[in-house]
Every structure is written in structure tokens, then in C-alpha cells.
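Case study 2.
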Amino acid sequence: MKRKRPSIRKMLISCRELDPQDGLDPRYDARGETLRVANRKALQLCGQVARTLQAVLAGECRDDLLRELRVESVVPAPNSSRLLVTVSLATPGREIPVAEVLARLQKAQGLLRCEVAAAINRRKVPELLFRLIGPPDLA
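Prediction:
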């Protein structure tokens, strides 16, 4: 069954100006482009790694200095086989040399990668690179 097209006279009565889209069924309007996130899986992996590292640094790590770190972000660098982990000190008043923090993170990297491997479902565990933000370098 064909649908009736609305008459121009009825459309003019109901509106002040006539547009080219007047009288068209809104169900058939072109929907807006959906914004797709580039590399959604890599971003999911980064979120999962960030949650895992935050939990490990807060509780399972035996180093008191590493317990004071907070994971700020995890981003692919340059892809998901290598991740850049940005950490900061949870207590900003404490002055600790950046080189010492990075050395302890490097020393604990085996434990951190092992915990990340247990938390994610990937064939290969991504390499972790660390960056400390916050206090200036006191070395």
C-alpha cells in the first residue's frame, strides 16, 4: 500500500516556511555518522593494564616506595606491544629522586609483567615503559 504524500496546502498551513525536507518521513532521514574510536581494543587493553598495575602497586608490591605510586595513564607507545605507563607519587609532599623511582620500577618489572600477563588474554605480554610525572628531578 502506498503512503499518501502530504498536500502542499496543508504543509503551508502548518508552517511558516517550506523546507525541502518538509513532508518526508523522519524514519528515513540519514542518521549522523557514529564516531568510531580508533584502535578500541588497544584502549581496552590499556585500561585493563592500568587497573592491574594500580592494584599490584598498591598491595602486592613489597617495596614501600612503589606503594606510594599511583598509575595516571597507560597508552600504546607506538602500538599495543609496548605500553607507556605514567605514574605519579600519591603523596606529593615527599621528595624522592626520579632516578631512584624509575630504578625500582625497572627492578620490579618482572613482577609487574607477570601480574599483567595473568590479568589479560594475550599471547604476548606487552613491554612496559615507565614515566614519572610530578616532582622535579632531584638527582
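DSSP finds five helices and three strands in the chain.
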